[in-house]
Amino acid sequence: MADTGGTRDEDPRGAGPDGARDSAAGPEGGAADAADTPPDGGPLEPGGAPAPAADAGALPAAGGGGQAGPAVPYWLSQVPYMLVMSALAAGIVVVAAAYFKRGPAIIAGALLLAAAFRLFLPKDWIGMLAVRRRWIDLLTLVGLAVLLIVLAWVAPQLSS
User: Both ends of the chain: CA-CA distance in Å?
Assistant: First the structure.
């Protein structure tokens, strides 16, 4: 093998040590390949301009059809979750104040609110309320709410 004057790791055809060709050198050593790919490595339109990238922040429309709906900011998608958590916290405070009939009823209401959000809002708009498949979430939330309503109904009210 003839010595090309370079190091042993370099390919004499213009490829570097990792086998990638120099972006400025074309197949014949010219600069033809540099105009074939945009700087970000994406596809080119027929005129040579980079193809527009899809908006990663856009959400699909609720009706489908392939059209992108309006982007929902992350904080806004957590509002239903925070409403449910606030109602749960209020119910726990009421239980801690020794109101054993009202507290579970408030917590059950919060669970039913979470079920309503899960049923009617798209998955991208409900944040952390979407844990499993929709029907499993609904079954769990409504089941727990019913159990808490029964508990609130049969629990004796403590007199002070």
Answer: 100
Instruction: Compute the average pLDDT of residues 29-35.
Output: 49
- CA-to-CA distance for 26 and 64, rounded, in angstroms? 44
Residue 124: count other Cβ atoms within 10 Å of its Cβ. Answer: 14
Q: Indicate yes or no: pTM above 0.85.
A: no
Give phi and psi for 100, each to the nearest 5.
Answer: -80, -5
pLDDT at 18 over 90: no
pLDDT averaged over every residue in the chain: 73
Buried b (16+ CB within 10 A) or exposed e, 2-29: eeeeeeeeeeeeeeeeeeeeeeebbeee
Q: In 3-state terms, what secondary structure has residue 73? A: coil
- DSSP structure string for 15-72: B-TTSPBPTT--TTSSSSGGGTS-TT---B-TTSSBPPPP-TT-EE-TT-TT-EEPPP
DSSP-assigned beta bridge partners for residue 60 = 68
pLDDT bin (cut points 50, 70, 90) of residue 41 is low
DSSP codes, 91-145: HHHHHHTT-TTHHHHHHHHHHHHHHHHHHHS-GGGSGGG--S-HHHHHHHHHHHH
DSSP label at residue 6? S
